[in-house]
Write a structure and sequence with these properties.
By secondary structure, the chain is mostly helical. It contains six helices and no strands. The mean pLDDT is 91. The structure holds zinc ion.
Length: 184
């Protein structure tokens, strides 16, 4: 996709994230959209900086770059949500365009799916919107469906895996166990 496509992807993704994370459509929804709009859009533009240096679709289109950007909020408490835009850029290039990306750079091999259109196609924007909707569906699944299913599975087990794990750790003397408020 070209830069216009990646901006479109970032903006739509932020609006969608607002409604997936805060579905009420109230102040919290719009606050979430505002909070994610700029970082996600910047992240969506970041990989294509490698059109100017390095090798395009390689130098900044790989899992190492994604990992570095994703670790910033964890270690430095900044650049929140930028990784969402970077990941979405990769998805759009892999799924929506003909050429793949070098996910494991410096290994040069480019990975893509046998779907998608050329970045100059008149359908490029439609494909971008479609891929964004699919991305949001996956996010909604992980936010609203997966936790409930996981909880149901854990409750259905005849034993408590979390409790067994913490008991084992305590037995080895490596952890004091979980805090009292933790729902085991
Ligand atoms: Zn790209």
């Amino acid at each position: 996709m070209n830069k216009k496509g990646h901006v479109l992807n970032g903006v739509l993704l932020a609006i969608g994230l607002g409604y997936v994370l805060e579905p009420a459509g109230d102040v919290a929804t719009f606050r979430t959209i505002a909070m994610t709009l700029v970082p996600v859009t910047l992240g969506a533009l970041l990989p294509d900086i490698d059109t100017e240096f390095g090798s395009h679709r390689k130098t900044l289109h790989n899992l190492l770059v994604l990992a570095v950007v994703a670790l910033y909020p964890v270690y430095f408490d900044n650049l929140h949500y930028v990784w969402v835009g970077v990941l979405s850029h990769y998805v759009l290039d892999v799924v929506g365009s003909k050429r793949g990306i070098a996910l494991f750079y410096p290994w040069d091999r480019e990975f893509g799916l046998p779907v998608g259109v050329s970045t100059s196609s008149k359908y490029a924007d439609a494909v971008t919107v479609l891929v964004t909707v699919l991305e949001l569906a996956v996010v909604a699944l992980f936010v609203h469906v997966v936790p409930g299913v996981l909880e149901a599975v854990v409750r259905a087990l005849p034993y408590s895996p979390v409790e067994q794990f913490t008991t084992a750790l305590a037995g080895w003397g490596v952890a004091p166990g979980l805090p009292a408020w933790f729902p085991v």
